[in-house]
Specification:
Helix content is 56%, strand content 14%. It has 400 residues and is an alpha/beta fold. The chain has two domains: 1-34 and 237-400; 40-190, Rossmann fold, CATH 3.40.50. A hairpin with a 4-residue loop joins strand 4 (132-141) and strand 5 (146-155). Helix 1 packs antiparallel against helix 7 and helix 5 packs across helix 7. The longest helix is centred in the last third of the chain and has 74 residues, at 238-311. It is globular and about 70 Å long.
């Protein structure tokens, strides 16, 4: 038998052999370590205390989040069917939270980036597994100016899911509150004239889409690519009044789409929170199994090496102990590999949960004036069709 150079036959004493076995035991001793349970600190939602004049109320549009699938393409625990649903659900949760600060006009989820509104909120899901939620948020105004970009992260413990049942609150509500609070801080730093300037740009952007010949020169783009109002239409401008009526119809459509998003979230609430809770358990179990697998494998290899070294000892007791160590180490390695296979079973369980969740998300049919519209997934295409309808209404009213 050829031994490694670091274990010459004559150098392994019974005492050294015991030390090597102790190293293996240290690796294995942590296998039954308890799973860490994190505590959740809830961030309260701030409220607007000063009454905001109606002319200064800014409308907020939250776009469906980027599911972030490209960022985590190598993570086999990320389920695309769940992420796509989360992208809508989390954005709608943020929409409701921002509305509750009482600092804004209408706060809606937007069916498309082409919707004209005062403030845009975009997000990307960086990580979501039931234990930890991480979002990247970017906020901009109607002029195209970026107001702020920030990453938000929150990690919850098992208690958060038990407490959710008592309080009917999302386990990660504190994260949504922090985003809404930061947005409120920015709003409170805005002067009345600045707020009204943002509203004016939104109004002129919408008008320019229907009557570019009349309103193109009212807006200019500066060196940074931001829009600026350089001319204002007359108060009694008949074209602008007609377009304003179209914008009110546009609001009606978006409000109807908001009802769809709200219904979507209500239908998703039960199965999604169940998936989150189970995913939390699966993530922690998979992490523990991977830890045990590593410890058992490394500990087993250490025991085998110690046994091989002891087999060449001059001590009969050490040789006998070495044979036992080789056999025990082999069993530990085998156990470690079995733990890896067991961890894979948990990953597959997550996939099954995701498929179950997807099956419960069905298309919804809504009534819009004299039309019946089926919302199936591509809401952007539906809004594009709606914009074409508004264009036809505008041309008909002008006798074109």
């Amino acid at each position: 038998m050829i031994l490694p150079a670091c274990f010459p036959r004559s150098s392994v004493t019974a005492l050294e052999f015991a030390g090597l076995l102790l190293v293996a035991a240290v690796f294995v001793s942590g296998c039954n370590a308890p799973i860490k349970v994190n505590s959740t600190t809830h961030t309260p939602l701030a409220q607007q205390t000063r009454e905001v004049a109606e002319a200064e109320l800014l409308d907020v549009g939250v776009l469906s989040f980027d599911p972030g699938l490209d960022e985590e393409s190598d993570d086999d625990t990320v389920l695309p069917q769940v992420r796509m649903a989360e992208a809508h659900y989390l954005a709608n949760q943020l929409t409701e939270t921002i509305q509750e600060t009482a600092a804004w006009g209408a706060v809606r989820m937007l069916p498309s980036e082409t919707v004209v509104t005062d403030i845009y909120v975009r997000g990307q899901i960086v990580h979501s597994d039931g234990e930890r939620l991480e979002l990247d948020i970017a906020v901009s105004d109607s002029s195209g100016k970026t107001l702020f970009k920030k990453g938000y992260e929150e990690e919850v413990g098992k208690y958060a899911y038990e407490r959710r049942k008592q309080l009917d609150r999302d386990p990660f509500q504190g994260l949504f509150n922090r985003i809404a609070n930061d947005l409120l801080i920015w709003r409170q730093s805005l002067s009345a004239s600045e707020a009204m300037a943002v509203r004016t740009i939104s109004q002129l952007r919408f008008a320019r889409e229907f009557a570019p010949e009349a309103y193109t020169e009212h807006l200019q783009t500066d060196k940074k690519g931001h829009l600026k109002a350089v001319r204002l239409p007359a108060i009694n401008d008949p074209i602008l009044q007609r377009i304003q009526r179209l914008r009110e119809r546009d609001y009606l459509y978006i409000d109807t789409v908001q009802e769809y998003y709200d219904g979507f979230s209500r239908n998703m609430q039960g199965p999604y929170q169940s998936w989150r809770s189970q995913s939390y358990d699966e993530v922690l179990a998979a992490r523990e199994l991977k830890r045990q697998s590593l410890q058992r494998t490394v500990g087993g290899v250490a025991a085998v090496v110690a046994g091989i070294a002891a087999a060449g000892s001059n001590s009969g007791a050490a040789r006998a102990g070495g044979a036992v160590a080789i056999g025990s180490g082999a069993l530990l390695v085998k156990s470690g590999l079995a733990k890896k296979a067991e961890a894979q079973i948990h990953v597959e369980a997550l996939a099954e949960l995701g498929e179950s969740l997807e099956a419960e998300l069905e298309p919804r049919v809504i009534e819009l004036e004299d039309q019946t519209i089926t919302l199936t997934g591509n809401v952007q295409a539906q809004y594009q069709q709606w914009q074409e309808i508004l264009q036809k209404i505008y041309r008909a009213e002008r006798g074109q």
